Structures are given as C-alpha cells and as structure tokens.
Input
Amino acid sequence: MRWDLITAIVAALVVSGLADESGQRAPYRIHTLFSVECQNYFDWQTVGLMHSFLKSGQPGPITRLLSCTDDQKKNYRGMNLAPTFEVPSWSRHPKTGDWYPAINKPVGVLYWLQHSEDAKHVDWVVILDADMIIRGPIIPWQLGAERGRPFAAHYGYLVGCDNLLVRLHTKHPELCDKVGGLLAMHIDDLRVLAPLWLSKTEDVRQDTAHWTTNLTGDIYGKGWISEMYGYSFGAAEAGLKHKINDDLMIYPGYVPREGVEPILMHYGLPFSIGNWSFTKLDHHEDNIVYDCNRLFPEPPYPREVKIMEPDPYKRRGLILSLECMNTLNEGLILRHAENGCPKPKWTKYLSFLKSKTFMELTKPKLLAPGSVHILPDQHEPPPINEFKGTYPKIHTLFSTECTTYFDWQTVGFMHSFRQSGQPGNITRLLSCTDEALKNYKGHDLAPTHYVPSMSRHPLTGDWYPAINKPAAVVHWLHHTNIDAEYVVILDADMILRGPITPWEFKAARGRPVSTPYDYLIGCDNDLARLHTRNPEACDKVGGVIIMHIEDLRKFAMYWLLKTQEVRADKEHYGKELTGDIYESGWISEMYGYSFGAAELNLRHIINKEILIYPGYVPEPGADYRVFHYGLEFKVGNWSFDKANWRNTDLINKCWAKFPDPPSPSAVHQTDNDLRQRDLLSIECGQKLNEALFLHHKRRNCPEPGSESTEKMSVSRKVGNIETKQTQGSDDTKESSGSSESEGRFSTLKLWVIALWLISGVGFLVVMLLVFSTRRGRGTTRGKGYRNKRRTSYSNTGFLDTK
Output
C-alpha cells in the first residue's frame, strides 16, 4: 500500500480546510509519531491506530518507529502495516543489559530526529501510543501549544513530580508536569527534549532504590513507568512547561465530561459493556492481523446500550467504548482484505460496521473554538471560593459492600439523610465482587454507583476491605458526570441529624473541612515522615469530609496510593507509631487520607462540633449533625455494638429490629452531662429502629399481629435467643446457627403441632400398652427414641451450638 500517497492526499485536504477555517496557512507542517516493536501484540494495535488516523482526518504524515532486533526482523510479517522508520531496539539495554522495552520510545524519537529526512521538514510533532484510537484531528496550535509550551494530557498518578524523586532527578522540580499519552510540541522543543528524555529514563530506571510505590505511584514497584518520569524530568530540565488538559484523551469505560468531545481514546485499561469486556493484555500473543476474517469479540450494539443504561451520561461513555472496539474491528476487516483474505461471510455485525449509523458515530470530531480546557498550574495555590451569590451544589457519598451488615446501616443512613435536610444528591458507592453481586438483594436501598471490590487486593492478595473507600471514590470520579461543586463524604455507620454544608462550616477550595480523629498519632511521629514529604501538613482528621470537587479530583488518587503504601508498611504497624491497639494495619485507610492530603498541602478546618460518638458526653451548646455509632455505647442495662450484628439479616426478615433503647425518662435526672449523653444515645438507637420499621413497611411486610406474622413468631423468638448469644464472645458462629434454625423452624411448625395433637389423643392408650406388655423394653425404646429425636433435631440445626 502506498501510505505516503494516501497520507499526503488526506493531509492536503484536511490542512487546506483547517487553513480556511482558522486563517492559518498550510506551512504549519504536522508529523505524527508512534513507537512499537516487532510483535503480534503491537501489530493489531498498529492496524487500529492507522485505520483511525485515516478516518479522523489527522493532517500530515504518520510514522511508525519500529524497534526490532536483527533476529526479530527475519520472521517479521508486518512491515507493510504503516509508514515505518526502523530504529535500534533497546529492549535489552546495550550497556547495562537491563530488560526494559519501554525505553524504545525515547530511543526511537531521538533516532528519528537524528536520521530521518522527514524530521527536517516538520514544524509540529504529535506523539501518540500504539494503543490509541484517533477520533478527530489533533492540531497543536488549536490545542494551545506554543513554542516552549507543549500540550499534553494529564497523568495524575505521576506523584514523583511532588516528592523526593523529582528532587533527585532534576534541578527544576517546580517545572515537573504530570503528563503523558497525548503530546504535541514544536519540533525545536522536541530536539532539545529528546536526548534528555532518554537520559532521564535511564537514570530513573537505574535508581532502583526509589522505585517504591510511595515515591513513584507505580503499584507494581518495579520501575515500569520510568520512561514516563524520564519524559517529565527531561522536560523540566529543558525548561518546558506544558499546557495540560484532562478531558480530550479518554480511557474507554470512563464517562466524558459534559460538553466535551474527546479526540483520542487510550484503551490501556480494561473496559466493559454489560457482560462484554476487553483487555488488551489478553491479546498479547494474538496473531489476529494474519488470521483471515477473525475479529475481536463483537460488543453490544448501540440500541442495546440505550436499553441497558438509562443514564445519558453513562450511556455516552459506553457508546465511546463501542466506538473504540468497532473501529479496531473495522481496521482488521480492511487489513485482512489487504492481506488477500477471502471475502468474509455476511453477518449482522459486518453489516453494522458498513452502515450509515456506524459511519455517523465515527465521523471525525472537530474541536469547537474555545473548547480546550487547560488546567491551572499544578504548582500554584488554588483560589479561595467565598460563596458569593447562590450556594454551590453538593453531592453526598458513602461507601459500603454487598453484605446485610452494610445494608442495615444503609437503611439507617438513608432514612436520616431524608430527614436531615441535607441538600443535593446522594450516592452509595457499592463495592462488590461479581459473585456477591449475583445474589445481592439490596439494590433498591439507595442511589448506587457500583464499584469493583478491592477487599482482596487484585495484585497483592491482601485482605483489607477498608481500601474500598478511596478506591470507590476514585472510580466514581472517573465514571460519572459530576455537576456538584462540593462533595460531602461520610461513612455508612452514621445517622444524620442536620445538614452538612460547606457554607456553614466555611469549607473552601484548597481548604476542606473535617472532624478530629486525635488517635491518629502517626501524624506526629516517624510514620508521617516516612510517608509524606510534608509531615507538618498532616491533619488528624476523618469521619466527615467536606471538599471542593477540584481538590477531590487531585487528591483521590493520593488517598488510594497512600492507603496501599501504609498498608504494605507492616514494619510500622506498632501502636506506638499508629495508635492502632490491634497493631494490624486496620486504620491504614485513615492514614492514607491524612498523608495523601499532606502531599497536596491540603490543610483542614477541623470542627469538633459536627460529629459525636453515641456514649460520649456532648460539648455544651454543640449542635451535632452526625452520630457515628462505630463504638459500643450503653444506657443503663441496654447497650448497642454494631459489630454484634455483623451476621444478622435485619433487612430481609420482616419487622426485624434492634432491642429497643430505654425510655428517655429512665436516664440520669441529676447529672446533666450524663443525661444529655444518654438522650443522644437513645436518639441514635430509636432512629435506627425507626428506619428499619419504615423499610419493612415499604417492603409490604404483613402487619404485626396478622396470621402470617404469627407464623413467624416462633422463629423470631429463636432468632432473639440467638441474638442474645451473639452479644457474647462468639458472634459469628452463634448468629450463623441462628439463621439456619430460623429458616427451618417455621417450615417444621405445622407438622410438629399435628404430631402433638395425635400424641395427646393416643397418649394414654400408648402408655398402657407399653407398660403392660414389656416395661423393660419400653424403657429402652423410650431412651433410644429420645436419642433418635435428639439426633434428628441436631441434624436439622435446632440444637447445633457448635
């Protein structure tokens, strides 16, 4: 195929049109580069990128920088897949012997600048990755790029730009930008940057002592993103400050920002639509380019997506995922034809890929004037919002898992939310495994955003459910369209008593509000110095968080990364460092929050009159907005400990509830502090039972006292016995026995009653016969009979107390 002729024609047409529209003349020459290796894995990516390049109308030529060893080239079949410039392979470093294929990208760019004739006739260069789909022309000057100010996409996880790593590897840490993926810069800037990009990549790759997750953000801790840091540190050395954008490049599966049309898709992460999913790593050895008429599994059709997803914002994200996959498959169809494959048989899917509908969905996306949003300088302090005019929108979040333990907490939380007057919308972040979700019954308990469970860490295997909280917030930020300016983050084991608003508690951009968690002593000792470069900014806070959405976007990934980091630091679990009496790392997520905020110098306004634990003596005059019933509390002989109800299903059993707290008249009458403490504890217990009552009523449970309710009364009594046992030492085993016996008892009740009636009628006759004929044998039979009955009851679980 004459790629040079095709791209020249497309470039002439598109650049001509752009010149007419923008008033800029054609001599602004653009060249697009991408780097690959001699592998099937990169060949199918090349087919997709090249096909999208032609469809998008991207101006100028494109060049594939192909890194191959001499042995690889002998058997390589894909030389005709794209206009190609061969570069040396440094997958195995020629001097150190280090195996690091990612270094081929800066090696290839530098070699192209030094040895290609094309590089002598270019004004602007666009650098992409092979695993991308272009949706519309990428015009550097339209994006705002200038000489000395490249344009780039935001890579927020490059935390090394903010810590010790950057100070080790560049003299200008203040210029380090967290960018990558989509790069557009002037050729003169690239000539200065390219050798620094390579040398800094080598430096970071060799600095194995600083590969740790807390310094790099690399969850593998293997130095795999050294090339990305090489770029950022090299650009800082070159004095290049980027114009950074976070919405024109999108990962399939993410929801685009409202009003923004992404021009580039980067399918580097797994994505799914319903039961269909795609992960590029599943096709690492796939020779699909050379396997005639074989395509990737076809995704759902657009009309199916419209049915499965009613939310227009989420649906838009799914449609983008469809476009990515269908563009890859359309490219494969055309490539197979170029390879001389026989014409494929007609299928509904092939027909769709040739349809006007698909053509309309994938027509080039042109940037609207003024639509490019450039992020503010990452090193400048954010402006303060003074709440002038109308109050900003608020969104409330709380995190749970797919268990009945969290379900009854959700019922209590949602009931109190509705009564509290809290403004704005609310979302439950529900973390579930696929298996748990199949049998889950609580979908209707709250407006819900579903999140993959990280209770069992996907990489380390560590069991730590608390990590789901920051992981869920990160997922929510990347998969929803958020119109709120402030986010209030709470826990499920809370009862709201009134509104929590940023204007009342003086939250501002760059100044979140939270409540004191004084036991986080790690903020004052070596733990903070180990895990944040700004230990003096570590605030001992948690429970209630009020934060500006832009702060949360920057902060959430730090929260997750720092949680992982503290959790992995088992050497420093000791209570003298953490304050954790169990010394098990259980409060790693809380430290993850405090250390993550410190990294960004987010200092909190700490307010001790927002939240109270039931059982604590309230401050005089405090108007607490939240009960946090995370600890046991008592009033007289009555007590409540949420942990005792971990395995009791209070949601799906009609009229199930907690033991009623005492009447307010029973509390202390002489000591006012203790009286106020007990009244608040009673209010919390009453609110939980009130929520459960209304929940069962909404579920159309039969009225108490009705026949169907009477049938359940005996099983409920058994359940109450088990509940009392649960409050002892063996919570899990006792309540498990309770759930089994409750289910069986109601089923056996009718035949037990019948047996009693028959026995009553025939009792005298049976006894006369037994004692008159063979008393000794009768006694033996009776004993054996009782043993048999005991055994049978034990088998049904009635008397199983193991």
About this structure: The chain is about 40% helix and 15% strand. The two ends are 75 Å apart (CA to CA). The CA atoms of residues 248 and 262 lie 4 Å apart. The first helix runs from residue 3 to 22.
